[in-house]
Amino acid sequence: MGPKAPDTLKQFLGQRVVVDDARPCGVCEWCRQGQRRYCKAPRYGHIVEEPTTHNFGGYADAITLDRQSVLVPISPELPIELATFIVPVGSGAEWLLLDCNLQPGESVAVLGTSRMGLASCVVALHQRAREVVLYGHPGGVDAIRAAKALGVTVRGEPAERAAGDLYDVVVVVTETPASYAARAVEMAAARGRVVMASTSMEPSGLIPEFIRRKGLTLKGGRGASEVALTQAASIVSAQREALNGKIGERYSLEQAEIQIKSLLQSGIARGTHMVISGRS
Ligand SMILES: [Zn+2]
Predict the structure, then answer these.
(1) Tell me: the pLDDT tens digits for 2-12?
(2) What is the pLDDT of residues 55-66, one digit of tens each?
(3) Residues with Cβ < 8 Å from 73, sequence gap 6 or more?
(4) How far, in Å, is the centroid of ligand 1 from the Cα of 35?
(5) What is the 223 CA–ligand 1 centroid distance (Å)?
(6) What CATH number labels 86-220?
(7) Residue 51: pLDDT above 70?
């Protein structure tokens, strides 16, 4: 770290940190309003096709940090597959805790058998939700296996016009199929909260009257704030024993290619959380 490095970086010198993949530009309308996670600047891991310094790293041995980088300190002992899981758990914390104010004893449905779906389940379990149910495509085998091991109920595809199974908080973490957005509104209980973290541009069949009739609150789920990432670091550390061996596969660089190719089998995404590490 150079002598001109900003204090926002110097304060973490020598510490183990998570770097948020968002790298806010600092000058756009969102950034100036303090809403940095909505910034559209390229993220760590995005590859910008310009012969400039606009590639900050990601999938690399080193990354460029500056005043705009968001760093969160984490426990030095946390295994790497749990440390990297802090980022999706950060989004789960943003949506369930900060956006929806999930209370202990409430019920939660998560639509999407992906890494993000699993992370949302972990936040709900940590918050002592009465019931946590994961819905979605059976192809997300890794997320389903881990969720079951953690005590989450898995119910397959959500049914149209949910009969009986109504939830205080419903989170949609996938855009396929688009109809999940409509199902989520149907599955919400009276005064329930629904988080749309789907990027779908397709009509979903969502019926506005159900929002009015049940007095629902709809929230847009997009990434995690620094506060949520900090909460996520605490949640993953607190849940370390429960998560150990259930979340995250770890492979060497030599195994990387075959493992990455295995993520999509016959058009079905496995929904895994995978770490490729140079260290064995
Ligand atoms: Zn910006």
Answers:
(1) 889 999 999 99
(2) 676 667 778 888
(3) 12, 15, 16, 17, 233
(4) 8
(5) 14
(6) 3.40.50.720
(7) no
